[in-house]
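Q: I'm building a small set of examples for a reading group on sequence design. Run inverse folding on the following structure and report the sequence directly after it, with nothing in between.
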């Protein structure tokens, strides 16, 4: 585990449940645009359902009542929304799969009051960029490369790529905001959502 990921994991451990969900939702906002691009290319899936799920998550953590009935219903639709990489040729397939899985994991955080694996959502985001860089040819990876060589040579190149560094920095900023906020109020939730809304994690800027 690299230093950045260690920082994110330890920072998440120090947060409360609703703060972790907020962090996960912000990550999902940056992955959803990738699903939209995949949908437009392959005409498969339903980004509107994923958008609704994220919106319900934001409402869930910002509300005093914390109702999750709608999220529970919506979670049953995800089997039809997660693309199989073997069925599609779009460059954005892996990123779309990661987006759907990350949003489902975030929904589960709302439904299950005992467990919130927000770190898994952060990992989905990281992996979606990692795979995109490999599949798009932005990082040159030999067809036959040992696991040891990958860890020693290729992985550091991926970690230091501007796209991954940008996402890690955004995650750190989200964590810092959540850690410095005494209460997860509507203002904090709105700020988290607005600064991630519509910003794909596989595009610089």
């Amino acid at each position: 585990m690299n230093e950045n990921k260690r920082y994110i994991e330890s920072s998440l451990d120090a947060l409360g449940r609703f703060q972790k969900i907020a962090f996960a939702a912000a990550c999902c906002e940056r992955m959803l645009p990738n699903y939209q691009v995949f949908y437009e290319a392959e005409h498969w899936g339903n980004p509107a359902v994923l958008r609704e799920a994220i919106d319900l998550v934001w409402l869930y953590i910002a509300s005093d009542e914390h109702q999750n009935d709608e999220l529970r219903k919506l979670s049953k639709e995800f089997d039809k929304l997660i693309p199989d990489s073997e069925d599609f040729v779009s460059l954005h397939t892996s990123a779309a799969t990661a987006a759907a899985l990350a949003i489902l994991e975030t929904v589960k955080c709302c439904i299950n009051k005992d467990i919130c694996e927000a770190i898994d959502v952060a990992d989905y985001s990281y992996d979606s960029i990692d795979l995109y860089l490999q599949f798009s040819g932005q990082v040159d990876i030999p067809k036959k490369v040992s696991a040891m060589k990958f860890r020693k040579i290729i992985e550091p190149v991926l970690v230091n790529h501007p796209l991954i560094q940008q996402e890690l920095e955004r995650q750190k900023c989200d964590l810092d905001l959540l850690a410095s906020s005494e209460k997860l109020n509507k203002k904090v939730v709105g700020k988290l959502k607005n600064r991630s809304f519509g910003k794909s994690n596989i595009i610089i800027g």
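The radius of gyration is 17 Å.
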